[in-house]
UniProtKB/TrEMBL annotation:
GO cellular component, one term: plasma membrane
Keywords annotated in UniProt: Cell inner membrane, Cell membrane, Membrane, Transmembrane, Transmembrane helix, Transport
Keyword Cell inner membrane belongs to the record: yes
One Pfam family recorded for the sequence: BPD_transp_2
Subunit: The complex is composed of two ATP-binding proteins (LsrA), two transmembrane proteins (LsrC and LsrD) and a solute-binding protein (LsrB).
Natural source organism: Lichenicola cladoniae
A molecular function GO annotation: transmembrane transporter activity
Highest taxon of the lineage: Bacteria
CDD domains: TM_PBP1_transp_AraH_like
Recorded topology in the membrane: Multi-pass membrane protein
Protein name in UniProt: Autoinducer 2 import system permease protein LsrD
Amino acid sequence: MSDAAHPIKMPTRLKDRLTRRPGSNLSWVILAVVFALSVAINPAFLTWGTIRLQLVQAALIGIVAIGETLAILIGHIDLSIPWTITLSGILSADVYAAHPSAWVPFAVVIAVGVSVGLVNAFGIYLLRVHSLIWTLSVNLILQGLTLVYTNATASAPSVPPVARTLALDNWGGFPVASLVWAACAVAVILALRALPFGRHVYAVGSNELAALMSGVPTGRTYVVVYVISGLCAAFVGLMISGYASQAYLGMGDSYLLPPVAAVVIGGTRLSGGSGGYAGTISGSLSVILLQAMLVSLNISEGLRQIIFGVILLGLVFLFTRQRK
């Protein structure tokens, strides 16, 4: 990829934009309001058992949303997540059944995640196909590959023990899934705020051409962002197989839009260059609490989807108005 070989001094205007990271206070206010409403509707939301369940489910969305946050920060999106999750979950279970080693599931996660990430970076950066079209097409291709591989009947009967450990076990009284999410969150926040990679992400999202002329390795930034996104989705595929104690077709279908909603609620601008992962954490928790609150109201699935969609549209409108 054609990165600039010799970095030059970054323009003051661009530097100013890179250092301007709007807070995500509103997303935390929204989380507090949603939690208060949930408790008012069902006091069981205050019990540790319910909180633990929400933390595990939020961890699944939150880890996927790491890649989505980075993709949106550079002004793009990743819609190949659902079938990256499914393919990774099914392959890790099948390969582990044939070669029962503790490292096999992670090798599958890395192979699937890196492969999908490189394909996405190739199409979006080199071929200049819009990420919305390219990643959605890749998602369809992954769906087809999975159906061919499984003969459209797959439901892996067993999953690697490490998948159950990641999704269901506790450590120090807390769900392992939430601790893994916390570690990943710290890593990505530090990377965005303290490493050159973070400055490159904000530079590409603010103005890609100016970033390239300033010496930012734009091609490498695309590759790293989409490989991270692929790895996060593939890793969550392994975790979901452990959570459900099986790997099955369509296991990633419900992860198409919630991660995007978590990023938007968290205050990251859809056009890129502004935001961060701290807000996505509150966005992930808000999405899960909203879903759980609607379930507790015991209304039909169809009406629940309508209300959830309307609420998300309202929140997106609220953030859009706030930035004007």
